[in-house]
Amino acid sequence: MEQDLELHARISAIRQRLNDAAMERWGRAPQIIAVSKTVPAQRVNPVLAEGIARLGENRVQEILEKRPGLDSSFQIDLIGRLQNNKVKYIIDQVAMIQSLDRESLAQEIDRRAQQHGIVMPVLLQVNIGNEPQKGGVAVDDLFAFARYAARLPGLRVKGLMAVMPDLRDEQVLRPYFVRMRRLFDALAQEAIDGVSMEELSMGMSGDYELAAQEGATVVRIGSAIFGAREPVRCAE
User: What predicted TM-score, i.e. pTM, was given to this entire model?
Assistant: First the structure.
């Protein structure tokens, strides 16, 4: 009971901060994805009672191991870097792949989705900081990649995702969020068949308020919800 009260307090505080950051400018607060990587299923399930039905997981193996213990109402989004040869294991286990960043992966998602008779919603991951250690399509290649992905019948482009540079100075970090929102709006203006710009997934436990201020529609929050130290930044 004490743990449930603490969880409720943390999530309520996050929601209030998101509302304060976003409502005046955007008219709505971003949706929360609870990043549940490394968190056991029994600690994850209570967030459903707090109105959070989307989970973000980084690793295919962890999804497969954890899925049986999770409430079946959860939508699981794959938010980590995805190897082509792992697509077959999760194509029918996740509701969205947020980390699409290359043609070969798009082809494999398309092939496996068609085999299962589904259309997989995807977000295009943008390497907004041009960081070689991170996944994501280069900004200059984004529009061409969106057009390529849109032609594949087994997937549906729903928007963009980004993992921001690990910067502590808000004034240095903010322009990356601003640029992502501008890319999102510009791609929406292109009105590409097969692309429906519905989600801009950006912002994590340490910068979700900044993301909300600059137009995120989805934030991916782990440690601020579960109260545990998270590993090195991946795609939360």
Answer: 0.94
